[in-house]
Amino acid sequence: MPKIETREFCFSPKSLPKTRMKELCCSPKSSTTDHSTSPSSTSLFSSPSRFSFLSPRPSFSDSVINRTLEMAEPMIMKWNPNTTTFSKVTSLFYENRREAKDFVKCVYNLQKAMHFHSTENAKSDKLVRAQSLMQIAVKRLQKEFYQILSMNRVHLDPESITTVSSRTSLSTRSSTSEFEGDQDDDDRVVIAGESVSEVEVVSNVAMNDLRLIADCTISSGYTNECVKIYKVIRKSIIDEAIYKLGVEKLSSSQVHKMEWEVLEMKIKDWLHAVDVAVKTLFNGERILCDHVFLSNDSIREMCFTEISKDAAMILFSFPENIAKNIKKSPEKVFRLLDLYTAIAEHLPEIEAIFSSDLESVIRSQVLTSLVKLAESIRTGLTEFETALQKDSSKALVAGGGIHHLTVEAMNYITLLADYSNVLSDILVESPPPSRNSLPESYFGISDSNESPAPVISLRFAWLILILLCKLDGKAKHYKDVSLAYLFLANNLQYVAVKVRSSNLKYLLGENWISKYEEKVKQFTSNYERLGWSHVIESLPRESNATMAPQQVKEIFKRFNLSFEQVHRKHSLCVIADSKLRDDLKVSIASKIVPLYREFYNNYRDAIVRERHSAHVIRFSPEDVRHQLSDLFFGPIELENCLSFEFSP
Fold this sequence. Notes:
Blueprint: H1 18-26, H2 28-36, H3 39-44, H4 60-78, H5 85-89, H6 92-95, H7 97-118, H8 125-151, H9 158-167, H10 198-219, H11 223-244, H12 252-257, H13 260-292, H14 297-325, H15 333-353, H16 360-390, H17 404-417, H18 420-426, H19 440-443, H20 455-475, H21 481-500, H22 504-537, H23 549-570, H24 578-608, H25 613-616, H26 621-629
Helix pairs in contact: 1-2, 4-7, 4-8, 7-8, 7-10, 8-10, 8-11, 9-10, 9-13, 10-11, 11-13, 11-14, 13-14, 13-15, 14-15, 14-16, 15-16, 17-20, 17-21, 20-21, 21-22, 22-23, 22-24, 24-26
């Protein structure tokens, strides 16, 4: 409240003429009447503390309103937007910031004086005069409010607001403290130990000016005028930003008819847009709204809701629209998972920004989108599982290589593992078939000494188990059993490597990987035993025994025939994994080359002296070793085998 100067005239009876003194003392009625009509006496006896019986004393509220009007009228009329050209085209807050604060202070004082005076005389002419001044002042403040909002669109865009908020200390004092002493420091940006950019200074000053005006107009009873200006300007900024981010409102029929490639581009745009919208757009607008309307919670929440609701509903309803209207297929699951992940990751921020009861419809839309996405994702995964189970192709992979079903299925499952965090929530209500129907060893992800595996781990183990069962069935179509084992070793090795090199290793665990790597060794051992046993058995175990030349010749011939046939046959085999390929070649060579070298060294001399020895001894030990080293580089190119499609 302004300090009202109330003068008290202190004087001595000696200062009056004797006759005048006599009149005052002896004839109060007449003197009172006389002096009440005299200008000099009115001025003289205006003191409320002495001789009140001589003249009607102005009330304290009259003194307050008179003094306030005397101080307020010149300043308010100076900036009356309807009087001079200067006041029409000039901004008070840009022209003289100190005077702008004095103007606001003047409006506060006028409002308080009006309230105080109305308690004694609600029909006073002075109230009418004060009310007229108040309307002019508020009209000026509305003009300033509009100018600050419109002229500082760049400095008050959500990105700038977010930056200022994260790097500065914005004033949070109430409006009543704005005028306690010199408040020029309110316009300063406080950043500990950092330089301040011009943009940040301007943004901070503009935000504080807006709050100063908003507090003043709201406390003066002109809330609607201020709020209307704010909502119109700020809503246009939010709506324009959402449009520029590429988010548009699509109908269900539009989504249903749209080509997947086009829709996928819109999903990518949305994924970028939601990140910017939550972290910058809505967050910045919330910060600005909270700062400007700090003094009134209900106005603050109402303003922010009406500004952001339309844009937020368009943004957060998009995933639901996609989930409900796209044609379901397994390969589209990943885009749905991207949408789900984006919402789930931003959910705490969304709930913090849209926290009021007025914004419950926005929070409800976000949760609805999550639910619909989860339903669509579960449907897509079920279709993938069904397609995997229904695969009935009997075509054999040449050379026992990796089946395209293995490549496609494991690529799909590996990508799914990257979303294991959200899939844990999505699949919690749809676990795989009961483990009681299958032996524990089929899953291989836990044993009796460990706690039960999570549902998500069981789900992935189940999908891979389906794949392995299908591969086991395909292996039975090979007439050569050794080739069937090589096929299983190749495909299981591919599965194990994909698991170990992806997030699947965390879901399935080391026990699972070790178990199936051991199975790979068993399969390669069986391949080696069945595929190369004839070559090994063609050589004698006791190469130092005495043998007739004819017997030696027979052994060489038997080895030549056996090795040529087996090598010719298995030279068409392929092992894609280099480590598995090298390990298998080393193992085969270790069983053949030493035996053959010992036999060769012991009996070679007895044969070479004979005619046609070259037809008998066709391979040296080094020849055998070199030919074995060339194995398993079959002609199969895996990238040409990716033709599996997941369709029921």
